[in-house]
Structure formats: structure tokens, C-alpha cells
Amino acid sequence: MAKRDTETLRYLLDYCEGDRQREKVAAYIECGSHAKAASLLDCHPRNVQRAVQHAKHRAAMQGHSPEHGMVHTVPDGFNVRGVSTLYDAKGKAVSQWVKSGADDARRREIMKGIFDAFADDLPRVPPSKPITVDAPDLLNLYTFTDGHVGAYAWAAEGGAEWNLDIAEQTFVDAGNYLMKVAPKAKKCILSFQGDWLHFDGMLPVTPTHGHVLDAAGRPGQVVTYAIRICRRLIAAALKRHEQVDVVVSEGNHDLYSSLWLRRLLTVAYENEQRVNVHQHESPYHATTHGLCFIGWHHGHLKKNEQLPLLFATRFPEMWGRTRYRDAHGGHWHHERVNEHSGMTYWQHGALPAPDSHASRNGYDSHRQATAITYSAKCGRIAVNIYRPEMSEAA
């Protein structure tokens, strides 16, 4: 878009949230392109593009989108439900009716704007020193499902304590151990396999049914620990693998948190070429490694036996060119491995101690995390397990 065209977007300055977003939009209007504006502000062009898109969205939600003939705004806290325009015989708009209503999504929009603004200004992780691992055929998958960072467990009820500090130490110990004992591999995947956070908002309740949860900290503390544990595990993986892929899956406890965590890690590591955060909006995700198909679904939406057909339908090209197919999930906190038609589903165990709900209902299982090694030619060739007792014994 040329500079003379972007001048017509000056109205967007009234719909920016914060000085930083307004600075990006103003630079875009002045320079005429995302790339030139980014060069002026010393940031990535995607940051400028996101700022402009967010301002356009806020303007349109309040009825102001001149490109589409919408020029009558509604107050903040309301959104436009419909616009009716009356034209004369020459096609000129002579009147317009705007239908509006209370904006139930306003809080979600504000939260997204906060996360976007935070991500734009988030310090990027500098590139790490490259390493060489002479095992190009191998890939290690480290699965951390049902982390429930922010949950509280009392040993008198469930047999072991669980809080924010214990969660961090347990996951770091698990990652260090599994990365040490797993075969050397050029590439690894860190899978945060759903329910990484225990609750999804300001209140400690499940997002869909509102069940009250045992919380170990305030929301801000939970977010801090959840991000820091991911960062520590990624840093450890970079010391042992040339390439580190990160998968953040949706769970039933963290429908929204999994989304912002995936976005945040993407921005934080955008300058680190050795880290690739997988981008997916669906609760069903897959990739390949040679002849291996590796899929993910937390387990909260589909039964295990339904997944082979679903994955074959969603990812037919990947399915067709692979021979060894695994899907990974969690949700139930205990391990179960079932081979179905054309695919093995791994329902992984979880590391957190049982909370009061699990204890009172007798949901007992071994606490563990796994590292599975895949050969590009031969499929799954090794499995290593970590249990908290290993660190306690040491």
C-alpha cells in the first residue's frame, strides 16, 4: 500500500491501545508499508502488521470501517451487529442504520490486546551457540502432559505435596534426566500436552463447567511459573539438540491459556533459529519425521479409538507417506497404550501429585513423564521414563 493510501487510515490512531501500538500504526501510515515502518522502529514487520490489524478490528467492532462503507460508530462496550445502508438511484449512500448490542466479548478482546502488546515488547531470546549432534536419523519426543501448574495438593490427602515451587523443580528434574538418558538425537520435540496450566482465568475454576479447583497461587504467579518452566526446559533442550520444536496443545483446563502461551513462546524465540514453535489452532495437530507420523490430542474431545480415522481424515498426505504412526495425549493422568487400525495411541501419565478431587475419587496412578525416540526409517525405537521418586532417591 502506497503512502498516499495509508494516509486514509489516520482514523485508526483513535482506536489504538497504548502508546506503543499507536507508534506502530503511525509509522505504518507515514511510511506506507509494514517493512519500512518496522525498519524505522527497529522491530519485526509482523509486529507492525499485528498493531494495524488490531486497530482495524477495534474500529470495525465499533462501526468504523470506511473501506466497507461503515462510518457510524457505537460507544465502547458495544459492538456492531449489523449495518443497513440506503442508496439513491446513482448508488450514493443517503442514510445508514447501525444495529448494536452489548459487547460480551469485550473482556476477551482487551485481554488479547494486552497479550499482543506484551508480546510486541517482549525481549527476544538471543540466538544460542550452534551445536552438532551426529544422529540425523533420530528424534526425541519429550512429553509433559497435564502439568497443572498452579494446582495445589496436600500430602495428607493424596500422598504427596504439589505447589508452584515443587512443580517447577519436578519438571526441570524430569527434563534434565530424560535428556540425559535418551539417545543422542539431532532434533527433539518438547510437547506441553494440554492442561499445562491448572486454571484458565482469574478464578480457579474449569473453563467449561466451572468446577472449583485447588489453587496454589494467584493468577499472576501461575503465569510466571508456567512460562519460566517452559523456558528452562527449552534452554536445556538446546544444549543437547541441534533443533528444538515446541508443541503447546489445548487441554480442557487451559483452552485460552494454551493459545497465549503458544503465541508468547513464538515471539520470544523468533530470533532463535534453532527453536520452532508449532503453529496450530486445532486441538488435533500432527507432524512427520521420515516414515513416522506423530500426532497430538489431549484426549478431552475424542475417545482414543476414534483418533486413527480422525487423523487420517485431517492429515491424509502425512498419513499416506508414513508407515509408523503414533498419537499422543493425556487427560486421564494414567498411562494406556492401545494399537488401533494403523495407529498407536499413547495416553501418557502425568507428574503432578493427586489433588483433593483425584484423591477422594480414587484416581490413583503412577506419576511419570516419558521420552520416546523415533528413527526416521524404523519408527519408535526407545522409551525412557522419569518418576519423581528418582530425584527423591538421589
What does it look like?
With about 400 residues, this protein is an alpha/beta fold. Helices cover about 35% and strands about 20% of the residues. The protein has helices spanning about 5, 20-30, 35-40, 45-60, 105-120, 155-160, 165-180, 220-240, 255-270, 305-315, 315-320, 355-360, 390-394, and strands at about 80-85, 95-100, 140-145, 185-195, 245-250, 275, 285-290, 290-295, 325-330, 335-340, 345, 370-375, 380-385. A 6-stranded mixed beta sheet has the order 6-5-4-3-12-13. Strands 7-8-9-11-10 form a 5-stranded mixed beta sheet, covered by helices on one side. Helix 8 links the parallel strand 4 (about 185-195) and strand 5. The radius of gyration is 24 Å and the shape is globular.
The quaternary organization reads as single chain
Arithmetic mean of pLDDT: 87
Tertiary shape: globular
Strands of the biggest beta sheet: in what spatial order? 6-5-4-3-12-13
Chart the SSEs and their pairings:
Layout: H1 3-6, H2 19-31, H3 34-41, H4 45-61, E1 78-87, E2 93-102, H5 106-121, E3 138-144, H6 155-158, H7 164-181, E4 187-193, H8 219-238, E5 243-249, H9 257-268, E6 275-277, E7 285-289, E8 292-296, H10 307-314, H11 316-320, E9 324-329, E10 336-340, E11 343-347, H12 356-360, E12 369-375, E13 379-386, H13 388-393
Parallel strand pairs: 3-4, 4-5, 5-6, 8-9, 9-11
Antiparallel strand pairs: 1-2, 3-12, 7-8, 10-11, 12-13
Helix pairs in contact: 2-3, 2-4, 3-4, 4-5, 5-9, 7-8
